[in-house]
Amino acid sequence: MRSQIISLVATCIALPCLAVEQTPPVRSALKLLPKEADSRLALVEGRDGAPNPSRWHFVVYDPESQNGLREYVVSGGEVSAIRELSQFADHVSPEAIVGGQVIKVDSNELALMARERAVASGREVASFNYDFSKDPDTGSGIWRIACLDKSGAQIGRLTVDSMTGKTLSENGFAPVAQSVSRPPAIAEGPPADQSADAADSSQPVQKSKRSRSASVASTSERRSTEYASPYDDGTEYADPDDNGSRDNTRSSRHTVYIRRTVPSPVETVHRIIHGIFPF
């Protein structure tokens, strides 16, 4: 019984040692390859890293292979597979060789750089995709690291020089669009300055109307004063054209009297003679 207990305790202590070893960063994984493979390295691929992927795929040039390539898969701290086929390349030529000696920036550093870009744009990174190859324009080695969100969609991508760690290009990392609550629609009307102009322009019109009214009133007063009735005391008079058909009592203050001059009989004769004998 005692021996069984001791055996059980020993097994429990040894269990953490049996746990699966995590895949190391890319520079440590590269040291597990044969020396000839390191010098003929053409491609490095890693998918869904957090920050390091579960497997590193090293594609090297192999002149003895039918398609010119050989792939080494590093997983859990060891080379888990060697094959002449790769999902990342159909054929490798000697011109694609860049060599493992140019990888000076490790995958942990790349992940930190990319995460900083994502955080600056307000995005959260769930995983990283790594891609190392030769730049056809400069001939140097470059890293392309893509940031993915929880759904697997790409947030952005960095292109970094594998020797110096200098960022060569940056794509994506657009800020998150935030919904902004808009105020309720307001009925359109004339601008404030136009309303003010309209109010200012209406004041002269109103003033001119009041001036005309005052002018008419003053003119009526003058006429009433100039043509005062001979019956200022309110005496009744008879209108010869009314024939007694209406009330002839009028106030002199509301009547305009026109003075007429009737020629004398002598003046009438002189006018007749002057019309016959114009000389």
Q: Could you report the average pLDDT, rounded to the nearest whole number?
A: 75
Beta-strand fraction estimate: 15-25%
Binned, the helix content reads 25-40%
Total DSSP helices = 6
- Taken together, the total number of domains comes to 2
Radius of gyration: 55 Å
Categorize the overall geometry.
rod-shaped
The largest pleated sheet is described as:
8 strands, antiparallel
Oligomer: single chain
Uncertain residue ranges = 4-19, 178-183, 216-259
Widest sheet: strand ordering? 4-3-2-1-5-6-7-8
Q: Structural class from helices and strands?
A: alpha+beta
Number of strands: 8
Between the first and last Cα atoms, what is the distance in angstroms?
176 Å
Q: What is the element string, with H for helices and E for strands?
A: HHHEEEEHEEEEHH
Describe this structure in words.
With 279 residues, the protein is α+β, with helices and mostly antiparallel strands. Helix content is 30%, strand content 21%. It has an eight-stranded antiparallel sheet with strand order 4-3-2-1-5-6-7-8. A hairpin with a 7-residue loop joins strand 2 (56-61) and strand 3. Residues 4-19, 178-183 and 216-259 have low confidence and may be disordered.
